[in-house]
Amino acid sequence: MKQKQISSLFGALCLLLACIVVGLPTLHAESEGVPQRSDIEDQYKWKVEDIYPNLDAWESDFAYLTDNLPRLEAFQGHLAESPEMLLHCLSLSDSLDIIIGNLYVYAFLKLDEDNRRSEFQELGGRAATINSNLGTAQSFIQPEILEMDKAKLDGFLEANKDLAVYSFLLEDLMRQKAHILSTEEEAILAAASAISRAPQRIFTMIDDADHKLGTIVDSNGEKIELTRGRYYKILEGTDRDLRRQANDTVQNSWKQYLNTLSATLGASLDKDYFYAKTRKYNSCLESALDGDAIPPSVVHNLVDAVNANLAPLHKLISLRKKMLGYDTLYTYDLSVPFLPESEKEYTYEEAKKTVLKGLKPMGKQYLKDFEKGLGSGWIDVFETEGKGSGGYCWGTYTSHPYILLNFNNKLEDLFTLAHEMGHALNAYYANQREPYVYHNQTLFTAEVASTTNEAVLMKYMLANAKDKNEKIVLLDYYIRQIRGTFFTQVMFTEFELAIHERIESGGAVSADFFRTTYRDIMQKYYGPDLVIGPDNDMSGMKIGHFYRQYYVFKYATGYATAQMISQKILEGDKAGLDAFMNFMATGTSKYPMDILVDAGVDLNSPEAVERTIALFADLVDELESLLLEG
Ligand SMILES: [Zn+2]
After folding, report:
1. What's the CA gap between 578 and 528, in Å, rounded?
2. Ligand 1 mean position to 147 CA, how many Å?
3. What is the pLDDT of residues 45-81, one digit of tens each?
């Protein structure tokens, strides 16, 4: 998962969609013979020059922003004076945000073409600095609005109709006012923010800098120094002894940090609880969800629905054990594909054709825009020396979307193309319809756009599989995706609930507590046929997601929502497709739950979650019958 953030008026705004890593990351950094960027044909490169034709144009906007940033100061202390004052301040702030978006995204897209280029490292540094200066210059706006009362703001909206564009934003701010403290108290909290980030910073230092995974020896006697990429690749491989060795070595390498990890995660929970209490929330969950106005019941219902339906996951684990022919199935046996020798390769051109055919049910307009995106410099397709890893979609309010891929002819690359194009079209449509202030997507809605594409495409590919083996490979991929994006995220969420509730009820945490809790939940999810090795229960303490409380459940709800929408589209439900297209052009001009209701899914009801579990059960049954057919 990769994320770049740029600050904006109302808190950290993510312009880059962070896609969860399903299964295993693509490997490339260590492969040999990676081409240079100059070796790649232009048609396979994105056109960052569509943002700025050259560096002079970038410099010109940079100078404009530098000159105009101080204009915000004139509004400080005066927002409550008149509707015009408020309107002009918000408009100016938005116009500067649009420019910083272009400066920032341009610099970092150029840098991601080849991270070794120092001129773009420098440009990125300058963009980040001016972005931070802009954030500081805007920082008075929100508190000043919050000092006004609702009646006054309503009067402003009544008196100046041009303020109407901001009415939802103002309503949403007022909604959260009950959790804003006095000016003095807010100042103390703001001053403590660096301290509050310490647990995450310490964890990141252990995880990225100090921790070494260890070294193993393969069957040829060759030493392998484990990196994360190599470790994941080994876990996907068919050499079981190597998998076991790698697992044991990696778990062992973490043991020396056991008590540090426990103390760090414990400190992060203390921090979550401190802010929840101080801001007068009943729980950490309530505090984490309030920004998006999501009721805590959505999370509890999700976990309950999955708990009531774990049998298909248990069945999958039994099937895996049987097919691999093991007496005991360990966690390091979970990532091996069922038919690795039958995996097909897809060239980029083949992938494009397949995706376009598969997405026909999405309608003519969608396909037309999809095809336009494929041919208009949106996508940077191939891996090159120094290029950013993984895949993502990014862009600005005034530019077309940009997609970074590292296309490597695998099935997952084909699906990544469909996935990222879902994000891209979501941004493309929303940028056209929404005013700047609402053009972005929240994580809660964003993954719906991308995953709907994948679900519709998968249906087509399964229906058109040439033979049994191809079908098995597709089913295996699909099942692993649902396991990773849905079940695993719900399992993580249940762990988050358990460890936060421990702190909230006045209990203490320890390494033993974290390990036992994680082990019990994982065992419950995977069932009696999985044996969790003695040290594999440390996982709960080394997952970075838990340092940002309660957000991974959004991948699960997003997935379930997308499944339900895709089922309607595939049934030929015209209203369902219209609702989806309307959803695709929506940013944040409504509460996220309401946006999903408009798209046809009410997460207050368990229907979407239950449909996903039912689909998963069907897929496991189908896989089983194909595998056992012989
Ligand atoms: Zn995504």
Report:
1. 45
2. 37
3. 999 999 999 999 999 999 999 999 999 999 999 999 9
